[in-house]
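Much of our argument rests on the idea that a fold can be written as discrete symbols. Part of our work consisted of pairing the sequence of a single chain with a tokenised description of its backbone. No coordinates are needed to read the tokens, only the vocabulary itself. The record that follows shows the chain in one-letter code together with its fold in token form.
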Amino acid sequence: PTVAGVEEARAFARDHGADVIVGVGGGSALDTAKAAAGLFFSEHPVARHFSGQAPLPPRPLPWVGVPTTAGAGAEMTPNAVLTDEETNVKKSLRDWSWLAAAALVDPLLTRSCPPRVTAFSGMDAFVQAVESYTSRLATPLTEAVSLQAAAAVARGLLPAFRDGRDVEARTAVAWGASMAGMALANARLGAVHGFAHPVGTHLGLPHGLACAILLPAVVEYNMRAVGAKYARLAREIGAAAADASDEDAAAAFLEYVKKLNAALGIPARLGEAGLKPDMIDDIVAQTLPSGSLAANPVDVPEEDLRALLLQQL
């Protein structure tokens, strides 16, 4: 959602004397409700909070999340991702008081999602499960949730993509998305999401699509640090045999991700989605301060960020 959109939603809620804000829809709708509720009692314009010129108010208006896509897990997180259209900057506002008062997750609400939305939102959930699992801030508790989330999404995403009426598949992905949201709220994410915000803004891509395209390259980059974790993921989702070596299982995970993207019709490189060489410096500059990048399991210096993007052309 945009800063202006949140400002409009907040004004609407104030004008109607709202006691609670209910967000119904995908991640953007939920983040709009979350931010409007979080900033409801502030005297400052939303833009001042977004730019860091004003602190977040000490208390929010309660809000309720009702997701109609299975992807962002925004009903489970304390952050709202906003875009300032004037500066072309996309980033999160975050406060633990912004957690939803209630989350109503009904997989039947996702049955009408077209295949394209199912694919992109589902891959966002999968990437969030993977990155929260490999995050340097992960704990045994978040790791357990992340593994279950990844397995659930892997089990349901392709069947849901192929047949949106498959309630069992829709349920698996919905559970996986919500669990991934719970995990990332505590463990944060990684380089994919560090890149994804500026990439999505510059290329005009849906967030989940940007994440999906970037995942194979980041997995390959992180392999030296968390190969054993990728191996565990591969075994958990059925991409590798239980007795496979860590090296073989980690390689199988990378291959699984590439094949999953292909099956969902997702491009192999950002160049196919519009990335141009003259965008790279701006994207790198906006990626460097990202909290998601800071949680990546291995440091990614500026020159490596640039190299990763050049490989995507």
In short: The two ends are 28 Å apart (CA to CA). The chain has twelve helices and five strands. The beta strands are 21-25, 63-67, 79-84, 89-94, 102-103. The chain has two domains: 3-103, 114-310.
